[in-house]
Design brief:
This protein is 84% helix and 0% strand. It has 169 residues and is mostly helical. Among the domains are: 30 residues; 47 residues.
Length: 169
Amino acid sequence: MKYLSKALLAAGLTLGIALSAGQAMAQAKPPTPAAIAAAKEILELKRANTIYANAVPNIVQRTMDTLMQTNLNYQKDLKEVAEVVAKNMAGREKEIGDGMAKIYAQDFTEQELKDLVTFYKTPLGQKLLNEEPKAIASSMQYMNQWAQTFAEEVNGQFRAEMRKRGKAI
């Protein structure tokens, strides 16, 4: 019986490793330019650029703020340098969009991406694009409220069980 369970475990591990290797090899194939273009169109339709539009100025600002905390004598210079750095780095946030498009193009086939573009252009797809952020925000709010209520219930059960043991907490 022990031998059988060890053999099954070894077979399961071998199968898992083989599947992982096969999946990694399948994912290693670079996405086509058409797949990347379709992914970029999806991201544009989803207005994904609003997520990272201010990435460069925000990082420049945070860096300047951090440096100012440890270099109080150079605040004027650091503000001037921040303007230069922001100007030099302007537009680099596009790298984020390019990276996101490559990720989509690796996770979906070219045809799937084209089908998604077609879908997002339909009335239902447009509704999804407009309503999904609100639905996600409301879902997150509900989940947080549920977690708070549930945590209070769990805390109450801990206290009740400890009282049964004669220990008030």
